Amino acid sequence: MMSEIKNLILMEFHRLTSIEIVLFLAIFVIFIFIFTLGLVWHSKRFLPTFLFLLSFVILFSSPFLIRYVMKEKIYKIEVSYQRSSPLQYANAFLIDMDIKNLGMKNIHQCIVKIDIHKNATNTFNRFKNMFFPTKSFKHFINEAIPTHQSRHFVIMIDDFYDKHSPYKVSTDCF
User: Fold this and answer.
1) pTM across the whole model
2) What are phi and psi of 44, to 5 degrees?
3) Is 37 within 8 Å of 51 (Cβ atoms)?
4) Are 109 and 173 within 8 A, CB to CB?
5) What angle do CA 35, 41, 45 make, to 5 degrees?
6) What would the DSSP string read from start to end of 48-69?
7) In terms of CB atoms within 10 Å, which end of the chain has fewer, N or C?
8) In the chain, which residues have pLDDT < 50?
């Protein structure tokens, strides 16, 4: 369990690019500026409290802001699946898809992930399926996709035995 968490953290830090570091530093400078304003105006009544709260909201929202900018602006993609389903007579999963780069930078790697879920019978199980899938399959695509161009991929994932369980296919590129 701890080695999985360690590998996940190392993989995330390995993925950091200079754009993400610059975005974090810009958010941190804004945090320092607003926090300093709160310290300077400490004699006022409600303004320092508001500025301190605002500065910490900005600091703790930085991972979400960076994720939004990276996924929706810089590495925005459009994925169209022609087919994504388990094969009938083999223990495999076939994904036939097109990935179009709508972002501002070239894409160098994509991760296609299939999450297997339990049958959701109530609200709690549906919520649990969102965060804790029963099993996950990942496939890495190491092919460059220039901006405003698209590539066609056919991916076969072997050892897929959960043919009748609900699944979710997702793609993330960077």
Assistant:
1) 0.78
2) -70, 175
3) yes
4) yes
5) 110
6) HHHHHHHHHHHHHTHHHHHHHH
7) N
8) none
